[in-house]
Amino acid sequence: MKTDYVNVNGYLIPKLKSSAAAAETIGKYGMMRARYLDEQRPMERDRMLLDGTLAQHLADIDREAHRQVKDLTQALAEQAAINEAMKCRDPLKWAAAMQGLQAQAEEIVCAELIYAEKDGTEAPKFPGE
User: Fold this and answer.
1) Is the pTM for the entire model greater than 0.90?
2) What is d(CA 6, CA 62) in angstroms, rounded to the nearest whole number?
3) Domain boundaries defined on the chain
C-alpha cells in the first residue's frame, strides 16, 4: 500500500484515507475492542490504522460478537428450559432469567472474541477473576 504524505511545518504526516467501512456504525463490542487495542495492543492498533483496516476490523468484531451473543443466549435458554411457556406464566421471572443468560453469553464472547490474542495466548486477567 502506497502512503501519501503532506508536509506540515517541516513534518511529513501520512494522509490517512477513510475506508468504506468507516461509514459503518461501530457498536458496543466494536468500541470495546477498540479500547482493548488502544490500552493493551497499541502497536497492533497503529498498524491497522495505518493499513486502513482498523475500521473494518472493529465492524467485523462488532457484527460477529452480536451474532455470537444472540446464538449463545438462545442455546443457554434452551438448556435452562426458559421458553415461551415460562414467558406467558411468569414474565418477570422470564425477563430476569434472560438477562442473566445474556450477561453470561456476553462474558463468554468478550473473553473469546473481544479480548482475545491472535497468537493464542490468554487474554489479560482482570481483578476479581
Assistant:
1) no
2) 33
3) 24-114
